[in-house]
Amino acid sequence: MALSLGLANYLLEAVGYRQSLGGDQTPETIWWIRFLFAAIPVGALLVALLLLAFYPLSEARMRSIRAELETRRGTV
Fold it and tell me: Domain-by-domain residue ranges, the chain?
């Protein structure tokens, strides 16, 4: 969220948004804003899925972690 807030001003400037125009932005600017509202979350989800694919957590590893936790604190 901090990254998106930090980049929001730069992205709006890059797509041609002008505050002085208010709601009378150009059609191209509106299109780019709508595109970015869809593309940025999709891109972030794709990156997350890619990272998840390389995360070393198999069913056997999860059982091992659970057994270790239960030996530390007992069963729940």
Answer: 2-73
